[in-house]
Design a protein that fits this description.
By secondary structure, the protein is an alpha/beta fold. It is about 35% helix and about 20% strand. The chain contains 16 helices and 22 strands. Strand 5, helix 2 and strand 6 form a beta-alpha-beta unit. The radius of gyration is 23 Å and the shape is globular. The model has no long low-confidence stretch (mean pLDDT about 95).
C-alpha cells in the first residue's frame, strides 16, 4: 500500500481513532479482511457477516502485525471507527488511488475477465511491476482490496470489474479511475438479474463511459453490443477481434490437438505467430483483449507476442488440463459456469477428444439465469448430443435434470443425473478407462472444482 498515517486514513474514511496512542503511525502494507492474511504494517478490515464477525478477530489481527483495525465499533485494539467498514474500504482505496501515478487498466465483460487478467498480467510483468486482482476479487470488497495493494512504484494496476446491476461498475470506476478499459463481450451470465443481454451491455458500458478524453477504450469488434459502445465514450477506441475492422486481430487461426489456439497476431504493420498455452478456443478472445490492453499501455508489440506465447492461466479451475499416466485426461473448468462458457468448454472437449477418444462431461447447474434457465439448460443438453459427447453426468436440482432430459431426447445414450456433488467421483470412476477425456464444469456454488481437483490428483 502507498504509505499513509492513521490520521490520514481516519480523515479519508471519515472515521475516528480509538485506543490509538500515536496517530502518526504509518500503514505500509495492504488491508486484509481475513485475520490469517494480515501483513505486518497493514490494516485489518473487521467485516460483519452472517456466520463470522471480523470484530471478533481484531486482537488476533493486531498480534499478527496489523497496525490498527478498521471497525464499526470499539474492539479494545487500536482502531479507526467508521459507520460502515465496506464503505470505508472504498473511501480508503479512493484516497490511495488518487496518490497513485502509474497506469490503471480495467476489464469487464460477461465472461473471461479473470482469464484475460491472467494473460495481461504476465505480459505486463515483462515490461514493469504489476498489481492485479487476485482470483476473482472484483466486487465491492475485492475491488478496493486490490487497489489497496498498490505501491508508489507499481507500474501497472490491473482491475477486474464485476456487476450485478446498474451503477455497480460506475461505483468501482469512481474508486480508481481507469485510463484504459476493456469490455470483452456480452453473454448470458447474470441475465436473470439484468433481464436481457441489452441491459447487461448498458451496465458494462459504464466502464467505457468512465474514461476521459485521454483514455483508451478497448472493445471487442466481434461482439455487436460491445462494438456499439464506441459511440458512448470520449476516449480513443482500439478494437480487437478476428475481422478486418479490428485494430488488434488474429488471422490464420487454428486449434491444435490440445484445443490450444494458434494464430498470427497482427497490429498495424506488426505480426507474429502465437500459440497459447491454455486450452479452449474462447481464450483467443481473451488473448486478443490482453494484447490490445498491453499495447494501449505502451508495451511493445514484440513483448506482447512473446508474453502470449505459451502463457497459461494462473487462476485455478479454468481449463486446467491434467494428463494421467494411464491416458486419462481431466479438464477442470469448474470455477464457474455460464451458457457461453459451458458451450465453449464442450467444444474444447470435443476438439481434444477428436472423436477417437471417449468423452465424459460432468456439468453442474448454471445460476442467475432467471426465467431463461430452463431453456438455456436444455440448450446445453442438446449441444452435448450434437457434439457427440459420449457420457453426460448432470449434477444438481431441477435445471440439471432438464439438461439431462434434453440430451437424452436429442439422442445421447449415456446420461446420468445425480443431485449432489458427493456422488460424482463414485459415478465417474466406476466406468473410467484409459484414454477417457473428462470435463468438469458448473456454477461456483456447485463446488465441482473440489471434485475436479480430486479427480486430477488421482482417480
Amino acid at each position: 500500500m502507498i504509505p499513509m498515517t492513521l490520521a490520514e486514513i481516519a480523515h479519508a474514511v471519515s472515521g475516528r481513532l480509538d485506543a490509538v496512542s500515536n496517530d502518526q503511525v504509518t500503514v505500509t502494507a495492504p488491508t486484509a479482511f481475513d485475520s490469517r492474511h494480515v501483513e505486518t504494517g497493514g490494516l485489518f478490515a473487521a467485516l460483519g457477516g452472517n456466520r463470522v464477525d471480523g470484530h471478533d478477530f481484531a486482537t488476533a489481527a493486531i498480534e499478527q502485525g496489523a497496525v490498527a483495525v478498521l471497525a464499526s465499533r470499539p474492539t479494545g485494539c487500536p482502531a479507526i471507527i467508521v459507520d460502515d467498514v465496506v464503505t470505508a474500504m472504498s473511501d480508503l482505496a479512493h484516497a490511495v488511488a488518487t496518490r497513485y501515478t502509474g497506469s490503471v487498466l480495467a476489464i469487464t465483460g460477461s465472461a473471461g475477465k479473470t482469464s484475460t487478467k491472467d494473460l495481461l498480467t504476465q505480459i505486463l510483468a515483462r515490461h514493469g511491476s504489476v498489481v492485479a486482482t487476485q482470483r476473482s476479487f472484483n466486487n465491492e470488497i475485492g475491488f478496493p482490496h486490490t487497489v489497496l495493494r498498490v505501491e508508489a512504484d507499481t507500474d501497472f494496476l490491473v482491475l477486474e470489474m464485476g456487476a450485478r446491476g446498474r451503477g455497480h461498475i460506475s461505483h468501482l470506476a469512481a474508486i480508481a479511475r481507469p485510463q484504459i478499459g476493456a469490455v470483452l463481450g456480452i453473454g448470458s451470465a447474470h441475465i436473470g438479474e439484468f433481464g436481457s443481454r441489452e441491459a447487461i451491455a448498458v451496465a458494462k458500458r459504464e466502464l467505457i463511459e468512465a474514461l476521459d478524453a485521454t483514455g483508451i477504450a478497448v472493445l471487442n469488434a466481434d461482439d455487436a453490443l460491445v462494438a456499439a459502445m464506441a459511440d458512448h465514450t470520449r476516449a480513443q477506441v482500439l478494437r480487437f477481434g478476428t475481422g478486418t475492422d479490428a485494430d488488434v486481430r488474429a488471422t490464420d487461426i487454428n486449434l491444435d490437438a490440445s484445443a490450444r489456439a494458434q494464430f498470427t497476431l497482427r497490429h498495424g504493420d506488426d505480426s507474429a505467430p502465437v500459440t497459447l498455452g491454455v486450452a479452449g478456443e474462447h481464450h483467443l478472445t481473451n488473448a486478443l483483449a490482453a494484447a490490445a490492453l498491453a499495447l494501449s499501455a505502451g508495451v511493445e508489440f514484440v513483448t506482447v507476442a512473446a508474453g502470449l506465447n505459451g502463457t497459461v492461466l494462473v487462476s485455478g479451475s479454468r481449463m486446467e488440463v491434467t494428463e494421467h499416466p494411464d491416458g486419462i485426461t481431466v479438464i477442470n473448468d469448474a470455477f464457474n459456469a455460464s451458457p457461453d462458457s459451458v458451450e465453449a468448454a464442450l467444444r474444447s472437449l470435443a476438439t481434444i477428444a477428436a472423436t477417437v477418444r471417449p468423452t465424459i462431461a460432468v456439468l453442474g447447474e448454471m445460476r442467475e439465469l432467471g426465467d431463461t434457465a430452463p431453456e438455456l439448460h436444455a440448450k446445453i443438453g442438446r449441444q452435448v448430443a450434437d457434439l457427440g459427447i459420449g457420457t453426460l453426468i448432470t449434477v444438481g436440482g431441477h435445471h440439471a435434470g432438464l439438461m439431462a432430459t434434453a440430451a437424452r431426447d436429442a439422442g445421447s445414450a449415456q446420461v446420468t443425473h445425480i443431485e449432489t456433488k458427493d456422488q460424482v467421483l463414485a459415478v465417474i470412476t466406476e466406468g473410467l478407462r484409459g484414454r477417457d477425456v473428462v470435463l468438469i464444469k458448473g456454477a461456483n456454488s456447485a463446488g465441482l472444482f473440489e471434485t475436479a481437483a480430486a479427480l486430477a490428483v488421482g482417480h
